[in-house]
Amino acid sequence: MELLRNIYESSVSGPQGEVWFELFGKYIQFGVEEEATLEYVKACAEYLNALPEATIKDLCEASIRYCNGFLADIGEPLKSFDNYKSVLSLIYPSTLIIPEPEYGDEPVIWMELNCEWEQEHGMQWVVRNNEVLYVGGFNGTDPWAEISKSTPWNYA
Length: 156
Known about the structure:
Layout: E1 4-10, E2 14-21, E3 26-32, H1 38-48, H2 53-73, E4 91-98, E5 108-115, E6 123-128, E7 131-136
Parallel strand pairs: 3-4
Antiparallel strand pairs: 1-2, 2-3, 4-5, 5-6, 6-7
């Protein structure tokens, strides 16, 4: 499986194309937000596909909290899941956003996803150093910012 494919240079934001996402068994879009190089895109793509199982578990459990928190807020029945990975069947990754690196070449996961429970705003994942920093509605949370896990809209 090719890690990156269909790469082209955007006149506005740099390299764009598709990245293989093993967790979902499919290609998704990637886009460069700032002035990241193709080498940095590859580092983020490799990181995406090498997340430890503990980090994947944290992402899935946070996604379940987001799902049921959102459903509770709108008065809908909560969902139950057989295991933490069951939530992945309700999630559709859209774009791996590649920011300009801030700490050398440290890769980061900054991802926009769609989900069945919140179709208007979708979902966002931010992972740095194998720590899940943000899971919730997509709001453009900067992956390099100090992200508080105690805010009510962050389910990480």
